[in-house]
């Protein structure tokens, strides 16, 4: 059995791993878009494949099956290109992962279409040449439909046989609705070998979601390491944190709170928390706007899959009839409605994508309020270097938005209580369900190199002697 690391190797995004059995059965685990500008390859900076690009370092038609841990684009974003390059097999994932992946890929395809259309209007020869390349790299709605027609929904904790010598089990991972750890058992030459791909490991007591479940003993473990070198900063509950910032921003003064938030997962956790604040803690019904069509569709998926949420969410739904709808809450579906919020002169909360404040409707809300001293911008997620969110967090006195330099008079705060990733202690807890004597090797992926290195040292101190940090393209015989 051979395992090759084609993504998320010494970097965070682009998860993609190829497992090949001795009888040439080829399993691709995740097929994510590489969102990083550069990847670390063999210790050196090297240009990575283009984001959501069509390049694969293997022949797509030779893959037998794809297993998808969860819907996020850095795990699913290259699936349409895989089909475009000749893959004809199935995608196995949980039913919520199918629904959320379909939404995310359709959204990406729509953006790709818009981008190509704008480039097609240009008369510049340089742009026209680039357009030819982009048309080969960017998928459209047709490729998304083809991909999603081949999805086979898999239930949690039910063994699914791929062939005479291979079976797979999806185990709840927290992190996002439908997310899974994937355990694969392979029999070769009469010997059983087991391998687990962690996907992204959720944190305990997260709004709406159940805790990540432990996995059975395995021989090999591929483990994410996003928070491998740190703990979550904020130890208070999401309700307590949000109550404090709302009181300071919208109750003590007639201000507005802008929360850049990813539409899938993070926004649903926010809305549920706000609902509980209003119904259980007697907060005045301050107007709340959710400004993301994708968030609206994603929320419908969460509401449809109540059976897969945690006990608290189910009990709240039974008592209050809705997890996400409450007094003075409004979805902004049109661009016109989004722009008109700038004229709303009462205290309010605006939740809008993207989470990094880079593109999306949130950019216009930040631009309209960046010089408003009665506004607070609450960053609740990771912001990549160079994004508008990153620049805000670095305390720049002025910010350039849409080619206009604006003084930063709004307050900028951050919290990680809504982070869907487990921290270092959560990751250690996940690995320690394994026996150091039985576990032959741990491979760390999906993290910055500093995070991986620190987590490698932590695991060595915990008694796990064989911890590898694979590089992109590195292959291991298992």
UniProtKB/TrEMBL annotation:
Top-level lineage group: Bacteria
All copies of domain Metallo-beta-lactamase, residue ranges: 13-242
Does the UniProt entry include the keyword Hydrolase? yes
Q: Which InterPro entries match?
A: Beta_Casp (IPR022712), MBL (IPR050698), Metallo-B-lactamas (IPR001279), RibonucZ/Hydroxyglut_hydro (IPR036866), RMMBL (IPR011108)
Domain Beta-Casp residue range list: 267-392
Its keywords, alphabetically, are: Hydrolase
Which one of the record's GO molecular function terms can you name? RNA endonuclease activity
A Pfam family (short name) is RMMBL
Q: Which PANTHER family match?
A: CLEAVAGE AND POLYADENYLATION SPECIFICITY FACTOR FAMILY MEMBER, INTEGRATOR COMPLEX SUBUNIT 11
Task: Write the protein's name.
Answer: MBL fold metallo-hydrolase
Which species is listed as the source? Larkinella knui
